[in-house]
Amino acid sequence: MSLGLLLLLLLALGALGFLAGRQRALAAVRGDARDLHSLPGYYGQTVALFATVPALLLCLVWLVVQPAIVERSISALILPEDITAGSSLVLVMSDVRRIAEGMDALAVAGAASEGEIAALVGQPDALKERLAQTGVALAAPILPHIAEAAQVWRAQTALGGQIMAAAVLALAVAGFLLALWRIAPEFRARNVVERFVRVLLVAASSVAILTTIGIIFSLVFESWHFFQLYPARDFFLSLTWAPKFGGGSDLGLWPLLWGTLYVSFIALLVAVPIGLMAAIYLSEYASPAVRAVAKPAIEVLAGIPSIVYGLFALMTVGPFLRDWFAQPLGLGDSSSSVMTAGVVMGIMLIPYVSSLSDDIINAVPQSLRDGSYGLGATQSETIRQVVFPAALPGIVGAILMAASRAIGETMIVVLGAGAAAKLDLNPFEAMTTVTVKIVSQLTGDTEFASPETLVAFALGLTLFVFTLGLNILALYIVRKYREQYE
Amino acid sequence: MNDMRLTEKVVTETAKITARGVQVHYGTNHALKDVDVDILDKTVTAFIGPSGCGKSTFLRCLNRMNDTVASARVTGRIEMDGQDIYDPRVDPVQLRAKVGMVFQKPNPFPKSIYDNVAYGPKIHGLARGKAELDEIVETSLKKAALWNEVKDRLAAPGTGLSGGQQQRLCIARAVATSPEVLLMDEPCSALDPIATAQVEELIDELRAQFSVVIVTHSMQQAARVSQRTAFFHLGHLVEYGETGHIFTNPTDPRTEAYITGRIG
Ligand SMILES: Nc1ncnc2c1ncn2[C@@H]1O[C@H](COP(=O)(O)OP(=O)(O)OP(=O)(O)O)[C@@H](O)[C@H]1O
Ligand SMILES: [Mg+2]
């Protein structure tokens, strides 16, 4: 039975369970729903949930576990002489898997009956030819023993699938009947559904958290690999970044980190004053009509993909800064520069700063403003001396969030600041950032296990720790700010 | 106590503020209808009346705080010392420096206790130096009966004080700008009886220098602290006169019904 059909059956059983549960609950009180502990629909829901959820979970677990078990039993079949020189058990196993999949493809396409496939196992060359026709190309000739292993693989997988279908359906029917049997007027169906919902929500949030942990774990793991190949001292202390294909690279973090910090700094220099003033205008001065138009208009900036900003940097801002500032001032003639990327990134960040700050300024209680006006302060005095200080912690939080975005930005830097790793103070010089180098190290031609590639993970981890720190700081400050009014 | 008896004699019958035909609309809601009142100098005037009758609204007309409410429209004439305060030439910001206000809910700024009190004097340049500012802060806090409690922690945040202390801080803050009139909108509604007694005592002392207008829901409080009482009902000023007279001998049946607890 195919997986799709199985799922469809489960759903049908669930729907049936809902109707049956509802019906039975109503029948138990002769149609008077007021005698039930819960609304009739809840009884239906318990049956539907008991019928589908455990069965689905079993199905999920089975799908994960079965291939591992089959793989292990097949590995045991592989003899030492099946592994030719230069090969390994892993490679042989992947051949077995591909042959088995190819055979399945043949069977599904109707190109060969099961009998013909069984016959082909004895004729490796013919098998190889037939497999090539379905798109499974194998480099080496197929050993007969390997073809047999592939057949066993297929048999075991098919058997497993059948057992799974049977087990899942049995569980579903059992859940269905159990839930149906439990229905009685005093059965607390509502509370059962409530618990189910809670478990579902917990599961969803665990997925999010576990994924994050998984990402961190893989970063740490690969970074650890890197530090096995390349001394951590050099990575953290060297001032040169010069990867070479043949090995012997200098992989110093500082030129990249400097570029990241420099670009982010300029971006914040642009985004913070403009964003803050826009926020103050919007929350304190703008009439409701202006606000209704201006706030979404600014927020549209946040919806522009960063590659579009990158193009803007490349085509417009870069040449402009070069022609009007860098060259007249004698500071170089590169249109890619820290300044270009920083300014454009700053524009991108304006809506982050302004819309977060606007919310925070709006959250300052009106009574504080009234207090200040009541003492004869003007509007700008009130904003400067009462509203702004009250909102400051929240605003700092907003700025730190914008900063962590700036640090993670890649596209604008590639197109605006170039890819040359340099430690320089001149803002009109091309430089590059950590994120850009992560991309270029991973997309290069070098072997995956070399330090030149693995350094990307160490860089990623550094960046992660950096932004994590900023975010924690932001959260801490925002929380502190909240306490002030509670 | 001696002071009090002295000031009693000083009470003059000169009007500090005269209001004539004051009407307030919030959009289409006619909140205040044709109010005429004379607020006397160096006198405590109490505004009483059931909830929603327009006491706060009228109070906020006197320092033009209604200007900050977009939907509010004030008509009629309010004069302070003979000057129409709604005259376009009058700067509402300047006016509010002379007509201080204490709000129903304590609203200290998220600053230190010292800076809360020094806020007004700093904005209006009332002190010529640090020493003078220190003195203003100290005398204001003393007037608000808060000095002894906070003199050792002037740098602590004003928001960290108890509700009653916060309200007295707000009073000190208003007093520090040396207003000529002090408007208090239910200043004791968040206070316990002890703090209420302190604030009432303070109001009595302030009468020596300012005229004080206080909105209150407590008849006893109105009777204790005020010399004049105005009774508002559904946007009308129903009755206005000497406090003793209003409470013992009201002329309007609505006033009598309210103070005896039959409407409210
Ligand atoms: N900012 C505002 N916008 C619109 N309507 C308002 C506003 N403030 C007050 N009102 C309306 O004006 C009327 C008078 O309100 P006001 O606050 O003056 O009453 P009050 O006598 O102070 O009542 P309370 O004793 O409950 O404080 C009420 O009907 C109220 O709904
Ligand atoms: Mg009120």
From TrEMBL, chain A:
Protein name (Swiss-Prot/TrEMBL): Phosphate transport system permease protein
Organism, scientific name: Paragemmobacter amnigenus
PROSITE patterns referenced in this protein's UniProt entry, alphabetically: ABC_TM1
Keyword set includes Acyltransferase: no
Similarity remark: Belongs to the binding-protein-dependent transport system permease family. CysTW subfamily.
Domain ABC transmembrane type-1: 257-474
InterPro entries: MetI-like, MetI-like_sf, Phosphate_PstC, PstC_N
Lineage of producing organism: Bacteria, Pseudomonadati, Pseudomonadota, Alphaproteobacteria, Rhodobacterales
Chain's role: Part of the binding-protein-dependent transport system for phosphate; probably responsible for the translocation of the substrate across the membrane.
Membrane-spanning residues: 43-65, 163-184, 196-221, 261-282, 294-315, 335-353, 386-407, 454-478
From TrEMBL, chain B:
Superkingdom, natural source: Bacteria
Gene designation: pstB
Gene Ontology molecular function terms on file: ATP binding
NCBIfam families noted in UniProt: 3a0107s01c2
Alphabetical keyword list: ATP-binding, Nucleotide-binding, Phosphate transport, Transport
Matches recorded under PANTHER family: ABC TRANSPORTER I FAMILY MEMBER 17
Domain ABC transporter as annotated: residue spans: 17-259
ATP-binding keyword on record: yes
This protein's name: Phosphate ABC transporter ATP-binding protein PstB
